[in-house]
Amino acid sequence: MHAYQDLVAQAVRDYEGFWANLAATTLDWSKPFTKVLDETEAPFYKWFEDGELNASYNCIDRHVEAGNGSRRAIVFEADDGKVSYVTYADLLNGVSRFANALKRRGVGKGDRVVIYMSMSVQGVVAMQACARIGATHSVVFGGFSSKALNERLVDVGATALVTADEQVRGGKTLPLKSIADEALALGGCEAVKSVIVYQRTGGEVAWKEGRDFWMHELTQTESDQCPPEPVGAEHPLFILYTSGSTGKPKGVQHSTGGYLLWAAQTLKWTFDWKQNDVFWCTADIGWITGHSYITYGPLALGGTQVVFEGVPTFPNAGRFWDMIARHRVSLFYTAPTAIRSLIKASEVDSKSHPKQFDLTSLRILGTVGEPINPEAWVWYHENVGGGRCPVVDTWWQTETGGHMITPLPGATPLVPGSCTLPLPGIMAAVVDETGQDVPNGQGGILVIKRPWPSMLRNIWGDPDRYRSSYFPEELGGKLYLAGDGAVRDNGTGYFTIMGRIDDVLNVSGHRLGTMEIESALVAHPLVAEAAVVGRPDDTTGEAVCAFVTLKRELPVGEDATQLASELRTWVGKQIGPIAKPKDIRFGDNLPKTRSGKIMRRLLRSLAKGEEITQDVSTLENPTILEQLGESR
Ligand code: PRX
């Protein structure tokens, strides 16, 4: 704790010096920076702006040049259990060839490449290859629908798309290329000149000559030499779409220098990363966790990591524990949802209980993505970590690039359910609606008071939305608004996250905007109006609950069940299966004020099954509450 406090004090004393020192020692710069933080166009901050570097060089070449080419970079385990090993030399070869193939297809510095793939070495290679030539990647999670993919292709102005024929998860094959074809056919993305396809299963796919290319055919004939393109530290390394409270998803734009610095540095601090560790982050490369703690952080450190194609419950719910034992994983990072579902599964099937496996290789356990309930924390600590391994509950976001508030293992005394203290250099605070600090013990709005190197730089193509979403005038225009509520403990000053304060839901650690789901529902020909709220769920943290009015008579019985199922499938097609509402309730109307505003807090109470004790005198139609409360 003294070492931690020293670092915190250093950052307070000399903020720029603190960050400059980390950036100079953690990364290799082809042109060293002389400037640290530029605030002249705040909140459009710039870090290390005159420095140049290449992310792929930092993640691959420098380890090979240091004589570590034969070190294992990736232990890949396929859905069916087949294991393959990739060294840093292999990565250099594969990434260079693919980077050359991209260049031959006309992709260059600043161009945007969308990557729509499942978990694979090739997915990581594609991201690294973009970074190598200075192209900006935008990974779209393989579970998103053709419509969602189309919107992202259009918004980001992609010129190339990398995908796979099919993905394999839980013993099933699921299409990717055909969804990509549908997305392209929806139009607006005519700038996409090349579709490069990784052949995962050999399943049948439609083919458009001159546009579609097999990844293995393109790379076969390319040279394995591709000098990394130096880019300015502020060059956009990637754009990753995430849900906000209003409108369409936001393209969160990250930098190269500041982002990479924090991806690597946080892994060192939060997981006490050491050279002989085997790290395993179970996230998908389609989310920020997969970017920072699969593609960039572990590779920047020259570490060894496990990459897994499948799901935790196939062939049985012991899969994670079996893999930890077989690969001697020492640092394990997963989501509370996964833990909760594996707790349940182990109660039903004792053979899948972690106690049945040799988990002695584990050193540190981590969680991310949503609040972890103390019961799940304790189970994880006891049964997976054998009571020996610190659990780091890491709070951060797509926008923050890396960990922000988290215990440091072995240093910070742990409290289940609390992400404890901000990392050194991260000026986190809890404020009221006017931006004033609130005393410890009192809940408020979580903000970050100073810019930090790995923060988002913009919302792609929408600087006004960047400013209004993250630096709202109500808070004075200078504080970064995280969108979460939090409270600090009176004694320890520890932070506890209390969930989103906006209309964003967190289902199984996936971020979903209620408006996105509402728009999807009202696009259905039978739906007149829809309001979506979250309700607590034992496994997924939050569940999507939709209140729907129809353009026809109110359905009852079997009719209602069928229609609800049709609407779920519809939302799955519009956004992706993760957005399907768990509950759908039909009503003749929605609870509204006389001015026509939907009273969401009442819907939230109804969704939870609570009795309405709040004042409903401003409601135009109070009887609707009874109807919506009954229909399930
Ligand atoms: O509400 C917080 C929750 O997840 C949100 C960020 O979601 P996303 O951008 O998808 O990134 C997830 C992976 C970093 C936050 O605003 N969240 C994330 N980590 C935690 C958390 N809530 C509580 N505790 C956490 N450790």
Automatic annotation (TrEMBL):
InterPro entries under this entry? Answer: Ac_CoA_lig, ACAS_N, AMP-bd_C, AMP-bd_C_sf, AMP-binding_CS, AMP-dep_synth/lig_dom, ANL_N_sf
Is Zinc-finger among this UniProt entry's keywords? no
- Enumerate the SUPFAM superfamilies for this protein: Acetyl-CoA synthetase-like
Q: Which positions carry N6-acetyllysine?
A: 597
Q: Which residues form a coiled coil?
A: none
Q: Which CDD domains match?
A: ACS (cd05966)
Broadest EC class assigned to this enzyme: ligase
Q: Does the keyword Phosphoprotein apply?
A: no
List the Gene3D superfamilies hit by this protein, alphabetically.
3.30.300.30, N-terminal domain of ligase-like
Annotated signal sequence is none
Q: HAMAP family this protein is in?
A: Ac_CoA_synth
Family to which the UniProt record says this protein belongs: Belongs to the ATP-dependent AMP-binding enzyme family.
Output this protein's name. Answer: Acetyl-coenzyme A synthetase
* Gene source species: Caballeronia hypogeia
- Please state the gene responsible for encoding this protein: acsA
